[in-house]
């Protein structure tokens, strides 16, 4: 089951590499929405103790962490758009 699913996606992205760009745009859009709304899961505490979004929020404040989350989300969207147009046939 897992092998056939893996093979399906491998074939799909090999035949249509621009779908990877669409995926990045969708992920960036969800991250942007969650960043603007300020959901707590954007500041996950399960990572290491230094230099993650929770550390940035605790050190520099919520506004800086929210700004960085929005910047990273927009970066994901822009990379996805670039990836889409680079591989579009």
TrEMBL record:
Superkingdom as given in the UniProt entry: Bacteria
Transmembrane regions listed in the UniProt entry: 20-39, 67-87
Keyword terms: Membrane, Transmembrane, Transmembrane helix
Protein name according to UniProt: Immunity protein 17
Organism annotation: Myroides odoratimimus CCUG 10230
Lineage: Bacteria, Pseudomonadati, Bacteroidota, Flavobacteriia, Flavobacteriales
């Amino acid at each position: 089951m897992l092998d056939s699913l893996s093979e399906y996606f491998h074939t799909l992205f090999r035949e249509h590499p621009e779908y990877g760009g669409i995926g990045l745009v969708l992920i960036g859009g969800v991250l942007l929405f969650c960043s603007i709304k300020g959901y707590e899961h954007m500041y996950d505490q399960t990572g290491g103790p230094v230099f993650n979004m929770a550390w940035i929020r605790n050190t520099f404040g919520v506004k800086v962490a929210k700004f960085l989350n929005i910047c990273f989300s927009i970066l994901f969207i822009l990379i996805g758009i670039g990836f889409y147009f680079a591989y579009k046939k």
